[in-house]
UniProtKB/TrEMBL annotation, chains A, B:
SUPFAM superfamilies according to UniProt: NAD(P)-binding Rossmann-fold domains
Protein name, per record: Ornithine cyclodeaminase
Pfam families: OCD_Mu_crystall
Annotated PANTHER family: KETIMINE REDUCTASE MU-CRYSTALLIN
Domain of life: Bacteria
Cross-referenced InterPro entries: NAD(P)-bd_dom_sf, ODC_Mu_crystall, ODC_N
Length: 351, 351
């Protein structure tokens, strides 16, 4: 007697790191960033539909492991993500991630995917989608402060989605800047290597900060920021980790993903709890104004939210069909008679 | 140029349903139930070490999807599990599950495993481990009320761990009883098919209730339960789902896993919030008494807790080594230079 092979319902498509990278090249990185940006924008537009829970964190001395669940009522998704700043020294990623989508109607998972590469793409696509709404008209030059793992993704997303032409790189570590400049060569952006944060900001209408400092740091001090810019603050994303001087915050119109989370993790943890902020989804659906004058400083205080991961997983689910860039995992038991799990187990022993 | 294959650190061992079933037969189901019971008992003994969070539930009209995380400070684990009572009608499992273990020190996952089969095993192993502590001396006969997917696992675990000799089956659906009796044939238990709940309880020192009723039901009414028995109540495990008459509860000494969760999900949701209960871990580590007299009714109001899943995943992690009963999943990105995720992605495109 042979065991029955698992039914389709018991198989969950899995996208490995290798297949995710192949999918990026299959679609093309800029079209994929634009596609992700469209999916994220669509989910921001229907923001009110979603179950929103702050991430569920398990803290230790070395770092944090988090689960970020959400649901739109039809599809449920969560991301597993860790943050261990010390990992870099050991040759490991500071952040690794994977995610899952499931059918709300029957609870069966429908996609398991790596999300280390995908999170890098969705973070950049979110930044660029927001900059499209908030940056001053004709913005084509960006200061990229912090040239780590996210910097090239940010630069390319701003090119693909906002028409960025020129990126001005700066990092306290010249090796990081050399790496970013080398990676960006030949991708259609003018790349300028700068020797100070101040120099990187010359002529820039968009300022992206994405440094790895764990402690309160001042990457942008008040006198560095002129009027009429859009600040895309990525690096301040956990309690005790901020990049902007309070003076910059006080001169800016501040836009956030989910205030409950941003007030704990974002730049605005430096401000009073009732400091006014605008939720980005209200700008996107037209309820609230975005930029109201050319001279204004707009600030996207980005910490990353579960809905963006959900959008990214939806994009992957919709784009792996017809490719061989996934494998089916036998993750779920599926006995012919749901009450006969034991019988299924016994029959497996007779093969 | 070829892409570097992922390093060991980026590969996560994955145990599929097929491999889990093969592992059960490789080890033997009774030795595996005993092993799981030992791991669970060990973790109950060091209960205070664990991060304990009630499960994080996403409810919908059709069911619930839950994440159950925990950590002992060195290892982090979570289980994904759904509960959709209507699934059975559609030929799907009511409950499917998978789980993960990760290294707290660096956040890297170390095991991904199916948990539909494994949860059935750990639930039975937990019941039997608790019965070993609470059932009257010499208990060798069990009434098994509710003959669904969990019933054979419960019966075998009680045999393997408590020396059960005889099981008395009853279910409102005779087909379920026929299935359970057939599955249990030849496994070393005297199996009696009974025609009523009352009949099933004749001579039984252990009474296990595990029915699928969603609503408040009375599987055990007060006059059915004599003195000197151990009740293993499995089926009352969510708000609105109970199996025992309040009178039975009031006559019993009640033992629970995690009171905060059991008061919401267990039989004791029918009692006042300050009704005294004993935490099972305190019995196991010797802090609190278990059964104190032969005539007492002990009741394990079991709802299933994250630590039991953690123990089960630890057992799997410790027992797949040296077998070919897992595969390595390329779930985590692992660039040579952690800051050079983009470079890794670019190089993948050149292969």
């Amino acid at each position: 007697m042979t065991a029955t092979p698992p039914s389709d319902k018991a198989l969950v498509p899995f996208v490995s790191v290798e297949n995710m990278m192949n999918l990026v090249h299959h679609i093309g990185i800029e079209p994929m960033l634009r596609g992700l940006s469209d999916y994220i924008e669509e989910d921001f537009r229907r923001w009110e539909l979603f179950d929103k829970t702050p991430r569920i964190a398990s803290h230790s001395a070395e770092g944090v492991i988090e689960l970020m669940p959400t649901s739109d009522g039809e599809v449920y998704g969560f991301k597993y993500v860790n943050g261990h700043p010390k990992n870099t020294k050991e040759g490991l990623q500071t952040v690794t991630a994977f995610g899952l989508l499931a059918n709300v109607g029957n609870g069966y998972p429908v996609l398991l995917s790596e999300m280390t590469v995908l999170t890098a793409l969705r973070t950049a696509a979110t930044s660029a989608m927001v900059a499209k709404h908030l940056a001053p008209k004709g913005a084509d030059t960006m200061a990229m402060i912090g040239n780590g793992a996210q910097s090239e993704f940010q630069s390319l997303a701003m090119k693909a989605i906002c028409g960025l032409k020129s990126v001005r790189l700066w990092d306290i570590d010249p090796a990081a800047t050399r790496k970013a400049a080398s990676n960006l060569k030949g991708l259609g952006l003018d790349v300028h290597v700068c020797s100070s944060a101040e120099e990187s900001m010359e002529g820039a209408q968009i300022i992206t900060t994405c440094t790895a400092d764990k402690q309160y740091a001042t990457i942008l001090s008040d006198n560095m920021v002129g009027s009429g810019v859009h600040i895309n603050a990525i690096g301040g994303d956990c309690p005790g980790k901020t990049e902007l001087a309070p003076g910059v915050l006080h001169r800016s119109e501040i836009f956030v993903e989910y205030p409950e989370q941003t007030r704990i993790e974002g730049e605005i943890q430096q401000l009073s709890e009732d400091h006014p902020v605008t939720q980005m989804w209200e700008v996107i659906n037209g309820t609230k104004p975005g930029r109201t004058s050319a001279g204004q400083i707009t600030l996207f205080d980005s910490v990353g939210f579960a809905i963006e991961d959900f959008s990214a997983l939806r994009y992957i689910r919709d784009h792996i069909g017809g490719t061989d860039l996934y494998m089916d995992l036998d993750l779920l038991a599926d006995p012919d008679d749901p009450r006969d799990l034991f019988g299924m187990l016994q029959r497996a022993g007779r093969t």
